[in-house]
Amino acid sequence: MREITEEHLADIAVGAAILGAGGGGDPRLGELLARAAIRSHGPVRVITVDELGTDDLVVPVSMIGAPTVANEKLPNLEALPAMLRLARRAVEGEGPRAGGVLHTMPIEVGGIAALLPIAMAAELGLALVDADAMGRAFPELQMTVPTLYGIDASPVVLADEHGNAVVVEAVSNAACERLARTVCVEMGSSALIALYAMDAAQTREATVTGSLAHAEALGRAVRLARERHEDPVLAVEQHLDARRLISGKLVDVARRTEGGFSRLEARVAGLGRDAGAELTLSSQNEHLVARRDGEVAATTPDLIMVLDAQTGTAVTTESMRYGMRVVVVASACDPRFRTEAGLALVGPRAFGYDLDYRPVELLHPATRADELSCSS
Amino acid sequence: MREITEEHLADIAVGAAILGAGGGGDPRLGELLARAAIRSHGPVRVITVDELGTDDLVVPVSMIGAPTVANEKLPNLEALPAMLRLARRAVEGEGPRAGGVLHTMPIEVGGIAALLPIAMAAELGLALVDADAMGRAFPELQMTVPTLYGIDASPVVLADEHGNAVVVEAVSNAACERLARTVCVEMGSSALIALYAMDAAQTREATVTGSLAHAEALGRAVRLARERHEDPVLAVEQHLDARRLISGKLVDVARRTEGGFSRLEARVAGLGRDAGAELTLSSQNEHLVARRDGEVAATTPDLIMVLDAQTGTAVTTESMRYGMRVVVVASACDPRFRTEAGLALVGPRAFGYDLDYRPVELLHPATRADELSCSS
């Protein structure tokens, strides 16, 4: 992928929404933003991490806040240039990173957050690096691969739709999260954010590369399956080597927005060959723990994804409604999140669940998607 | 006053505590900080606003938060250089102000806030401008004379004792307050703050000049009255041309710390010639409204000051206790706060009191301090 045009956006949006693992907000919103920006400013040039110049600077951008709010309160792209100016000024004040070309990048490949950097790149004429910091979405800003490499999220720049901006320079990425989340809530629980400015070497080493291409390929697989009247859910499972946790109906959804997060507990009652089984989902923007009939079926940092049973598209945490027919699947996260440090950062206990992490492919050795090809 | 040495600090602290109008925190804490800094780094050079060079930059520093907390959680002066570096970088990024000499200044002449800039000036080898932005203390950061001149509080830099820093660049000083207050609460309800960076012309026009000299002279008047076995409360009244509202005993103090403020409702039962009378005080860090027997006796923006009846020193909002013998006095604020714009910013209605402001000298034409010279 050398360029993102309007034609790529629908596939990227579908794929990124799935990889968002419940989080990231309504991907159509991000798609609209990106489409408007590309229509005004032309296609976005995409570069790989290997194409970065030594002195280049990559400033990822994203949104922070509760998707329930982001869906109501559109990001104001007019805040982008000021935000980027602040971010760059803050970063250049650090010294050695100055002088190179500025690029942007997604922090997470989920939902709006994957599409917003495309809009930003178009709007500001920047190239977009095909990588992200998670290979999925996570609810807190320190929950990234760069954190595992000791890379500072600071300076973190937040901007709201009124033109207010806040720069956080904290002593740890966890302290950044705490302060930025507070600011985000005061900004109305949804804000634009720039963070994890990285040089070329850091970007090469400490990101999940090829994320946008990955999202686009996933979205394309779903679209092609539908065009061919094949099962789009199966297409997702095959593309991600995902395990099916249940196929059924959403029967209970308890949701609240608090502290800048969308929190949710949901129950899926099995249908078809899953009749009689029940899956419970615990989520904080993203789905964190899935239990089937009381037994842990998948946990963070593996990706737990709720798909519309008919279309194969993502059902985000905030769009879950009673009665929806869904298939819940899970797939492996970036291997760096499976290390001791990775699990301390994004494993079940990092979210307050007293559970040991077990890789999804060990929890479900016998239920590979390709062996369970019935659609619900 | 050309220089502040250790010898000046006690008088400045006593005077600034009185001018704090209940706010500003324990002045002895500020005094100790300033004393330690001067002991380590030598006296602080004080300049008047007329001595500023055209290209000079004045970055005032202060504390933000609830004094109840500041008294427990000492400010970490080690955070000062990083905070000032951030403040200066943020300001210089704006362009035209760069190149001059950097000075500091108090934002408010009340309590710790008057002393902290002395410590900072000593610590960093800066000159201190003899001026402040209020001529008293106020609870919110937009409540300044510079605001009345359209001067931006942004960039506002906050720093906590762990080394975390946050820069707020907001579209209005009220938005700065909202965001900075939120950050302050997350930082533990007390933080160092740098704000209202001004050039020489702005500092000359939009500040209350001579504040430190004023505080020192007031403190000296109290000290000399005590040394001469005269009435120190009367000395304050005469020095400030203040009106006595009541002399009596604190009989009811309801205090709570919330949203980064210390809030208080207190009652003073009159003694001596005020026997039978009652004064109620409503405070938010500072004293905002005093009612005597139900009638408004003084309101913000005039200074309402609670003095220890024996020593003439300030009784701060958070140190008020049942049974204390106090004299409550009031004096005129800076005339710019008495304009329509000034009252919209800091008048009773700005704090939610549905009261018209009347200047304290009109409310009490017949009770001039010098005609009421009895001590309680």
TrEMBL record, chains A, B:
Domain S-Me-THD N-terminal: 8-169
Stored InterPro entries: S-Me-THD-like_C, S-Me-THD_N
Domain S-Me-THD-like C-terminal residue range list: 172-360
Name of this chain's protein: DUF917 domain-containing protein
